[in-house]
Design goal:
single chain, 126 residues, alpha+beta, 4-stranded mixed sheet, 20% helix, globular
Amino acid sequence: VCTPSTMSDTPEPTTPKLAGGQDDDKDAPVSIEESLKDGKIIILFKNTGNAPPLKQKKFKLQAQANFGSVIEFLRKQLRYKPSEPLFLFVNCTFQPSPDETVAELFKCFHNNGKLVINYCTTAAWG
């Protein structure tokens, strides 16, 4: 059962430290347990096509949040209205269901301790 949780509008620092004091830009492997230990996941948003870039691309969001909450969060960051088209894809591959939890997506598709979410204003993949 998926239960939505609240996400903070206050973004975390752009260069959060991961386990062992390593910068997250390093290619050192990060275990799922280490990434989930504080109940939050690092999400890296990447714009595609003509979608506007975010000034801050990395955020820590609640692991138990559903993907619909991630969509709402990104819309708020971009100042997009609900009527404006916005498509989100995990690893340039597929659009998750809005009721899918971020933790489950992370467990299946994480990349070095981050969940990469591409966004665009037209359907680019899928």
